[in-house]
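Bumping with the actual sequence this time:
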Amino acid sequence: MKNTFWSSQVQSTELLYYSRKEKFNKDNRNDWFKYFKIKNGMKILEVGCGGGLFTNMIKLYFPDCEVYGIDIDDNHIEFAKKRCAELKLDVKYSVADINNLPFENDMFDLVFSHTVVEHIPFDIFIKEQKRVLKEGGRLLIMRVDMIKKNDKPFMFLEDEIGELFSKLEYKEREPVAKYLEDPDKTMQRLSEYNFKNIDLKFERIVYYSPDTQPNRKKAIAQIERNYLTKLTNALFCLERANNGDIVKEQMLDLLEKQYKERLRLYDNKSKIFDFQSSIMIFISAKK
């Protein structure tokens, strides 16, 4: 029986993929890759790979690495395999439970995850990852700092769009991120599991700032990625809501007008210096 809880109830595969692509792409990849410390020839596993954005990017820029991705959601893995084939990459994807990884002991040089640790009890999260890591292999836990924010997003029609979102009605669902904890607690837990060289880094990744881009192509790409993320999120929310049909046409119209207005301002050289970012937490350790 297929497991599609996450993609149907929490975050659609497309939304997960495009929101990650907005934040991690070819233009800012080095801001992320410096924390992965990848070397050619490594065996690398992503736990909770979603639609495969990170794994595909790693294989694209480190083709000599052997890259694997697992996720418990069937829709995520189907999407990841399809996207991987379109890019003509060789990433090995499989549906698997983090509590029972389908790999041999001491197999991987790097095991990493992005926004997974907050959804699972830590003992379940870490046990199998440690087993499949090689002795001296590296664990990388990435998550978003949800508290620190000082972004200045483009606000044209934002209040009107927010008002429509406030009208949506949903059925109750199981809460997510219920195991979120401070980074020091995560590092203490890693120490209890006898990991070594435990380290913590914070990085603000500015992923949207069109008026600071060196050329039009990069600026337009950011504006388009931002619109696509917002549009995909809106469609997912509308589909899940009991009354989504009531506001759907108006909401999609407002989002399109917002997108076109941002393009118009950019083409008219009206610099407003809007920007968005994520403060990322990178916790690393060695087995």
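The tokens above came from a reply further down the thread. The domain at 5-286 is CATH 3.40.50.150 (Rossmann fold).
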